[in-house]
Amino acid sequence: MKETRLLLFLIVISLILTCTPSSIKDPHQNKISVFEDSGSKSTNNLKHVVQNMVAPPALPQHEQVVQGDPVVVDVRLVVEEKLQEIAPGVKTWLLTYNGSVPGPIIVVHQNDYVQLTLVNPATNTMIHNIDFHAATGGMGGGDLTSVAPGQEVSFRFKAIKSGVFVYHCAPGGIMVPLHVISGMNGAIMVLPRDGLKDENGNPVRYDKAFYISEQDFYLPKEKNGKYKEYDSPASGFGDLIESMKTLVPTHLVFNGKTNALTGENALKAKVGDKVLFITSQANRDTRIHLIGGHADLVWLGGSFNDTPVTNYESWPVVGGSAVAAIYQFRQPGRYLYLDHNLIEAFAFGAIAEINVSGQWNDNLMKQIEKPGPIK
Questions:
Q1: CA distance linking residue 320 with residue 6, whole number of Å
Q2: At 279, which CATH number?
Q3: 213 with 162, same domain?
Q4: Hey, which residues does 72 pair with through a beta bridge?
Q5: Which candidate, 157, 129, 160, places its Cα nearest to that of 143?
Q6: pTM
Q7: Could you tell me the CA-to-CA distances from 195 to 133, 137, 192 in Å, in that order?
Q8: If 0-12 CB within 10 Å is exposed, 13-18 middle and 19+ buried, where does residue 344 land?
Q9: Domain count, the chain
Q10: Is the distance from CB of 95 to CB of 169 less than 8 angstroms?
């Protein structure tokens, strides 16, 4: 009898010890303080890797998890000033990085170095630069990168913070908003070296990734309501300043123009895909919603250092920031990814479509009875 009691006592103690909070996985365990710098202290002998830029919504080729020493990621951005249609019959001068609105997204890992070359061709008319919200010091690089037409400049920064961040042109004064609302902005994603983690601290991988940027335009109008056109970007700046001071956009679009991500341009995925959505807004607040789905994971504020929140129906993107979210598609069909100020989505154009292929699951949704006469 005594031996049985002793055995039971030992079993109970064992269960208590294995179920204590100390044995539960803490997603914050072993994290380095945000005030501590880690990684290489020098770029000497670090490998250089060229990243080939691609137009949004695509991301450049990249690894989600890396091992070994940080690298120096060489990036080349070419400024292009171009007259382009942003809505049917509406043209405006766009100021762009690599010809697209938004500029291409850059992907590196924490403690990598970004070595950027900014090219301003002689065919352009204005001074440009670049301010990275992911960089430390020097106005985000803006103080080191001002280039006149016919010049190029290179600078390097260490990506010490993981997350998704905006970059944009910031020449100074009123020229900062003028360049940003003319399309001169983009994003950079700085992944943790060991990849993304879910709400429990477990590794999570994405099967696809899309970069979607909301762009606000403030196009000046004639007295008859027709949008004005100009011979050069600078010739319209006087009118544009007055137009943007109203704080009322004339156009709100995804990826530079109306229908950029709808119809024939709709995004594609399959049932079962975990899709990473990166959304930026360089100038004003927005709120994102996926009709027909949710955000399984959202890194609020774009910070991969923080535990992601789960099951959000809509999530905020504060002006001057980018936010990352993952959703695993569970049903086939058409989804809408939009600004849930529904006026801005449907009346202005801040909307994208995702067409998802796969087999329908009646357990998740089923039409019980088709439309018919009222009984």
A1: 64
A2: 2.60.40.420
A3: no
A4: 48, 113
A5: 129
A6: 0.90
A7: 21, 26, 5
A8: buried
A9: 2
A10: yes
